[in-house]
Write a structure and sequence with these properties.
alpha/beta, 7-stranded mixed β-sheet, 186 residues, 5 helices
C-alpha cells in the first residue's frame, strides 16, 4: 500500500472489508485524522470487522450491503478506495458497474487501490492459473469463488493506471494497481 500515498486527513472507503484485518492494520499505522468506511455483503464479515475495529469506532464504520448500487457513500466521499481480492469474485458486468460507482465516490484527486488474483506469466504460474480457472469453472466453491482476472482489462479506458506491480508467490500471482479516474471519461 506504499504506492497508495495514504496520509492523514484522508477518508478511506473499502469495498469488501471482510474481517476488518486490513482496515485495522491501516488504522493502526496511519494518523488519527484518517477516517474509514468499509462495506461487505456478508453479515458474518461485518460482525467480525465491527469487533476488530472497535478501538477506532469514532472514525471507522462498517456497513452491510446487499450487492445493489449505489454504494452507501456520497459523491466525492473518499480520497482512497481500496478493494483487495474482491473483483476476482465478481461477474465482469457487475464489476464494471461497481467501478463506475467507486469513481463517483472518489474525490477529484482520489485514487483506486486494487489487489486481485491474476493470470501467471511464468510456466508454473500459467499452469497454476489454468488449473485454478478450470476448478473455478466446474466447482467455484473449491477455490473460494475466486479466479484469476486482468485488472487492466477490467479498468479499461475509464481509469489511468499510475502503478502496477505483480507479486509472485507459490505459483500464484497477485496484481496490485493504483489508478485515477481518466479525466476523458464521464
Amino acid at each position: 500500500m506504499a504506492e497508495a500515498a495514504l496520509a492523514g486527513d484522508q477518508t478511506i472507503f473499502e469495498f469488501g472489508c471482510g474481517t476488518g484485518r486490513f482496515a485495522a492494520h491501516l488504522l493502526g499505522s496511519l494518523p488519527g485524522s484518517v477516517n474509514y468506511l468499509g462495506v461487505d455483503i456478508s453479515p458474518v464479515m461485518i460482525n467480525l470487522a465491527t469487533r476488530r475495529l472497535a478501538a477506532w469506532a469514532e472514525r471507522a464504520k462498517v456497513v452491510l450491503v446487499e450487492g445493489t448500487l449505489p454504494l452507501p457513500a456520497d459523491d466525492g466521499f473518499a480520497d482512497r478506495v481500496i478493494s483487495t481480492f474482491v473483483f476476482d469474485l465478481l461477474d465482469v458486468h457487475y464489476a464494471r458497474e461497481v467501478l463506475h460507482d467507486l469513481r463517483r465516490i472518489l474525490t477529484p484527486d482520489g485514487r483506486l487501490c486494487l489487489a486481485s488474483l491474476a493470470h501467471g506469466d511464468r510456466p508454473l504460474e500459467r499452469a497454476v492459473s489454468q488449473v485454478w480457472t478450470g476448478l473455478w469453472r466446474v466447482a467455484p466453491q473449491l477455490v473460494g469463488g475466486c479466479r484469476p482476472i486482468s485488472l487492466s482489462a477490467l479498468l479499461g479506458n475509464d481509469w489511468q493506471v499510475e502503478h502496477h506491480s505483480r507479486v509472485h508467490r507459490f505459483g500464484l500471482v497477485t496484481d496490485v494497481v493504483i489508478a485515477a479516474p481518466n479525466s476523458r471519461q464521464p
